[in-house]
Structures are given as structure tokens and as C-alpha cells.
Amino acid sequence: MKRAATGSLLGLALGDALGYPTEFDDVPSILATCGPWREMELPSPAHITDDTQMTLALSRALRTATGRGALGPKRLERPLREEFVDWYQSPENNRAPGNTCMKACYLLKTGKPWEEAGQVHSKGCGANMRVAPLGLLPGIDDDVRAGAAQLQSALTHGHTTALAASDLTAYAVRLLARGAEPMGLVGLLRSYAGWRTAPATGRHGSATCGPAPGPPRRSGSSPTAGTSAWPSWSGWRARCGTPTPRPTPAWPRGRAGSPNRRSPPACSAS
Predict the structure, then answer these.
(1) Among 95, 146, 153, which residue's Cα sits nearest to residue 126?
(2) For a disulfide at 240, which of 74, 96, 209, 262, Cβ 3.0-4.6 Å?
(3) Can you give the pLDDT at residue 213?
(4) How far apart (Å, rounded) are the C-alpha atoms in residues 179 and 123?
(5) Angle between helices 160-177 and 185-192 (to 10 degrees)
(6) Whole-structure pTM over 0.85, yes or no?
(7) How confident is the model at residue 1 (pLDDT cuts 50, 70, 90)?
């Protein structure tokens, strides 16, 4: 597993650095400028983006939390918050970070509970891009891995789709690290997860509301498996209908397009 973890994280960083020069470009523009991706050379210097930065932040949080004992939500939430806030404030956070991560990390910095900091409307890839370390962490079972994957998502991306995607991606990384064939991955993920919905019967805030529609769960497991310790799709701020929007806070720095954003380096083809 140690070798798989090293290779996975190194590959993530290399792919991130290769892709950074083409961020926000469409496929025809990329091909015209860079040629076939297999022939692209690594830029020099090679810059990683917020994808790798937040992956490393999660890795450090996991190292801190597991160094203090068995992994649990309270033990993970504090170092995760600290690492995300450190990333938010870092001068290196100038590579087009996502708006959802910036909004949520600003709120975490002000001391808001993670339940209020997480953006419940957001189901973007910002939580999914960083979850690989949880698929590589040894010594945890499926329920702990699923709960931790969802919690790290919920601090920034609170939509149930974001929670589900993080859970499935962490599981996919775990399967591949254990030798699963990539061609068989979809079937394995389908056997792991079953889509369910819990229809709401009333408007947001009404006494008749049930949990919001949920993301995949493992086949044969209870919809609330593991929820006594971990926030989950059925237990995490159960809502009905459209969540009440909160005012968007103003934060001082780091958004895409801000003056301190570093321009991507030009790509090169061999």
C-alpha cells in the first residue's frame, strides 16, 4: 500500500502540473497549442494547482488525526479545518482556486461550524479532486473511509452529490491500490453503491419533511449505516426542497481572476 500511495500521489501531482497550462481551455485549443497529450513535456518549472495543494492538506490532516488515535469525526474535523484554513491563507493559493472552496474556507476561518461553512448548493469536483488519500489510508474499514470521505467534502461542498462522489472516488482509489483492474472498476462501484431516494413530503422547513434524496450507499447496508459516529448523506443536515441560501461573504483574496492569481505557464509539445 505504501508503494501504491507514493505512486498515486506522485501521479496526481504530475497530471495536475501537466494539465495546469490548459486549464479553462477547450479541447480544440489544447490540441492546437500542445499537440497530443501523450507527447506533452512537463513544464519547467512545473506548478501544481489547488487540486494537489488541497490533496496534501487532507493528507496532513489525516496524518495528524490518526497520530492521535482511531480516526473519528471530531478527531478529523479539527486538523482538517486547520489545514484548509492554512491553504486558504497561503500566498501559494494563487492558482485559480475554486469559488466554493474559497467561500467555505473563509467561513471556516471565521470560526463557523463546518455544518454552516459547507456550501449546500455545491456539487462541484472541488471535494472529489482531493479525496485520494482516504483511499490509500491503511487500517480503516469501509464505514470509516466512507464517513471520512464525506466529512472532508462537507466542510466545503455540502450537496449530497458531492458527498456521494467523494465516497465513491475514495473507494475506487482503494480498489485500484489493491490491484483491481481499471476495466472492471465500474462494475465494482455499482456493486458497492445503490442509488436510493427518500422523497420529501413537504416544503423546506415543514414538519412533514423527510431527508433529502441521498447518494449511493453500499448494497445491503442500512441507509444510516455509520451515522452514529459519522455525518452521512441521510444524517447530514437533513433538508427538504431547496436549502435556504445564505448571503455570499466577501473575502479578501485568492479567487480566480483576482490580481494575485498566477497565470498558467505555457505548455510545450515535444
Answers:
(1) 153
(2) 209
(3) 35
(4) 29
(5) 130
(6) no
(7) low
CA atoms within 13 A on the CB side of 127: 32
CA distance 128 to 105: 16
**Helical (H) or strand (E) element with 134:** helix 132-136
Q: How many domains does the chain have?
A: 1
Rg of the chain on CA atoms, in Å: 19
How much of the chain, in percent, has pLDDT values that exceed 90? 56
Question: Which cell is 205 given?
Answer: 422547513
In the chain, what is the straight-line distance between the N-terminal and C-terminal CA atoms, in Å?
34
Amino acid letter, residue 185:
L
Q: Which amino acid is at 249?
A: P
The one-letter amino acid at 33: T
Structural domain boundaries enclosing 17: 2-269
CA distance 27 to 33: 10
- Residue-by-residue DSSP string for 101-128: HHHHHHHHHTT--HHHHSBTT--STTTG
- Angle between the N-to-C axes of helices 99-109 and 73-89, in degrees from 0 to 180, rounded to the nearest 10: 110
- Stretch 101-105: mean pLDDT: 96
Rounded to whole angstroms, the Cα distance separating 117 from 97 reads 17
